[in-house]
Design goal:
With 155 residues, the protein is mainly β. The chain is built from two helices and ten strands. It has an eight-stranded antiparallel beta barrel with strand order 1-2-3-4-5-8-9-10. A two-stranded antiparallel sheet has the order 6-7.
Length: 155
């Protein structure tokens, strides 16, 4: 009886939660990749992560941030160790390839270390699968916003 109870408990917990390994890859806040990434978290097997801000906002100076991640129950703890920021340049009217009215021109991305490190806690919920374009896709809500799984985006 004890074995059956433990087996049931293990089976139930595997349905309602995910493992750190299952989270490795990229999770984008849109089901498809268009001209650029939407808001995207990439979790790597070595415990590092990178967050991309939506690339269609061409006027934004914060490109993204990175550091280390760890799954803690139904949350992910991010330790932010650096930001990638657009430095210099100037704003011009968008040329139409952006989702924003203006775009940065002549800037360069500079990695800026964070001291002391920042801690961000992401709430996870509704991990599962859904059919999208006749393909079964993993989804998860990160801070109540739905994200779709991709094997891994390069940055």
């Amino acid at each position: 009886m004890k074995k059956l109870f433990l087996l049931t408990l293990l089976f139930a917990s595997s349905i309602y939660s995910q493992t750190q390994k299952e989270l490795c890859g990229s999770w984008q806040a849109a089901p498809n990749v268009a001209a650029g990434y939407d808001d995207t978290f990439t979790f790597n097997e070595d415990g590092t992560f990178y967050y991309f801000n939506n690339q269609m906002d061409c006027s934004k100076r914060e490109v993204g941030y990175g550091g280390f991640w760890e799954l803690k129950g139904k949350s992910i703890e991010l330790v932010v160790t650096y930001y990638d920021l657009e430095k210099g340049g100037h704003l011009e009217p968008s040329d139409g390839s952006c989702g924003s009215d203006s775009m940065l021109v002549g800037s360069e991305i500079v990695k800026t270390n964070v001291v002391p490190y920042e801690l961000i806690v992401l709430k996870l919920s509704n991990y599962g699968k859904e059919m999208k374009d006749e393909t079964e896709r993993f989804t998860i809500e990160i801070n109540n916003r739905k994200h779709w799984y991709f094997s891994k985006f390069e940055y």
